[in-house]
Specification:
Number of strands: 22
Structural class: alpha/beta
Helix content: 25-40%
Shape: globular
Largest sheet: 7 strands, mixed
Distance between the termini: 7 Å
Radius of gyration: 22 Å
Number of helices: 13
Oligomer: single chain
Length: about 475
């Protein structure tokens, strides 16, 4: 049995791991690598022949784990993609959105080059809608905690890990030459007591563990609950100052948890009613997926539903669909909350709301997630007094705030708990992926201090698992 880490090796994006048992090849995740120094077209350059992959196992829908599947299929992969049912539905939404982003960037590139009188060599979209649907045709869904036999020697079980609806760790039992070994891939691990989602389930004992390390060395704020942090900000921005609160939030996962938290706040009377706009068509479609798999939301959300009704609907909440209606939100002059994508401000309708409100003294922008270096969100958070939006340099007069109470990633202690649950006399190696180098090293040091063997793998190096 061999393991090769081809993506998210000493970086965050592009998760892609190859597990080879004899001649049988399993690809765990096939995410887009969108590190800032990489050209998106480089995702076509697989370090293996796509047609040689027998099966893909997808841990969850996020684009850094699923986003290169259409390219894999387009270039020759002909097998099944195994995942949980919610992951299949959410992946389709995200992949189709990727096509829209590719098309928008290609069109923008063409216009830019025409304006400079240059020959049109704008980058072509990595894939099109047809390729997304070809990929979706290969999906086969498996429920949580239901062993699935991939072939006579390999069994797969999906274990829920929170983080996103349908997200799972992939646990393999492998019989090779009469010897049984096991390996688990965590995907992304969620945090405990997260709105809407169940806590991560502990993994069974395994011989090898491939785990994410995004928040290695970092702890989440524990002094406030989600509701307390939101009430404090809303009360100041919308009640006392009679202004507007803009919350950039990813459409899938983060928005649903935020809407549910707001529902709890307003239905319990903690704040007077405030108009809430969810301005993201994808968020509306993703919310339908959450409703479809309502049996998979956590016990608290299910009990709320039984007592109060739909946790994603409440008075004064409006889901904005058309672009025309989105623009009308700017003309709403009463106190309000605007939830819009994308979380790092690099596209989507959120840029319109920023354009019209960044110079508004009575506007607060609340970041509830991570913003990568180089993004508009990162520039605002570091305190840039002037930012570039829609071909204009705009002074920042709005109040900029940040909280990590709605981060869907487990922190250093959450990650360490996953490892410490393993039997150190059995677990032979812990491979760290999906993290910045400093985070990986901090987490590696902590895991080693607990008595486990740790490897921070290099990209493309084959490891023999005996």
């Amino acid at each position: 049995m061999n393991l090769t880490i081809y993506g998210a090796a000493r970086q965050v994006t592009g998760s892609m791991h190859l597990l080879q048992v004899g001649q049988f090849k399993i690809l765990i995740d096939c995410g887009l690598d969108y590190e800032k120094d990489r050209n998106i077209q480089a995702n076509e350059n697989f370090p293996f022949r796509p047609e040689e992959i027998d099966v893909v196992v997808l841990t969850h829908a996020h684009i850094d784990h699923s986003g290169n599947l259409p390219t894999l299929v387009r270039l020759g992969f002909n097998g099944q993609v195994l995942c949980t049912p919610p992951t299949a539905d959410l992946t389709e939404l995200l992949l189709l959105d990727s096509v829209n982003i590719f098309m928008h960037k290609a069109d923008k590139g063409r216009k830019h080059r025409r304006g400079k009188g240059k020959f049109n060599t704008a980058a072509q979209p990595l894939y099109l809608q047809k390729h997304v649907m070809d990929a979706m045709d290969r999906f086969v869904t498996i429920g949580f905690n239901r062993p699935f036999r991939i072939n006579g020697d390999i069994e797969l079980t999906f274990i829920p890990v929170g983080h996103l609806l349908g997200a799972a760790a992939a646990v393999f039992k492998v019989n090779e030459g009469g010897t049984e070994r096991s390996i688990a891939f965590t995907g992304d691990i969620g945090r405990k007591n997260y709105p809407v989602l169940d806590d991560p389930q502990q993994l069974p004992p395994v011989d090898y563990l491939v785990t994410e390390s995004t928040y290695g060395g970092r702890l989440h704020t524990k002094d406030k609950t989600v509701e307390q942090a939101l009430v404090e900000t809303i009360e100041k921005a919308c009640v006392k100052e009679q202004g507007r609160l803009i919350i950039p939030a990813f459409s899938i996962g983060r928005t649903q948890s935020l809407v549910y938290s707001l529902n709890k706040i307003f239905s319990s009377g903690l704040l007077p009613p405030v108009k809430v706009f969810v301005d993201s068509p994808m968020a509306t479609r993703a919310t339908q997926v959450f409703r479809k798999y309502h049996n998979l939301v956590n016990q608290e959300a299910q009990e709320f539903y039984n007592k109060q009704g739909d946790e994603f609907e409440f008075e004064n909440l409006e889901y904005v669909e058309s672009l025309k209606d989105s623009r009308q939100v700017s003309n709403y002059f009463e106190p309000c909350i605007i939830i819009s994508s994308a979380g790092m401000l690099e596209g989507g309708r959120i840029q319109d709301h920023l354009y019209y409100n960044i110079q508004n003294y009575y506007c607060t922008i609340l970041f509830i997630g991570y913003c990568a270096k180089g993004t508009l969100g990162h520039r605002l958070l570091r305190g840039d007094p002037i930012v570039h939006i829609k071909d204009r340099e705009l002074a920042v007069y709005a109040t900029i705030k940040q909280t990590d109470v709605l981060s869907a990633h487990g922190d250093h202690q959450d990650l360490l708990d996953v490892v410490k649950h393993q039997d150190k006399t059995r677990l032979k190696n812990v491979f760290l992926v999906h993290g910045e180098t400093s985070s990986m090293q901090a987490f590696a040091d902590a895991v080693e201090s607990e008595g486990y063997v740790v490897t921070i793998p290099e990209k493309g190096i084959k490891y023999e698992l005996n």
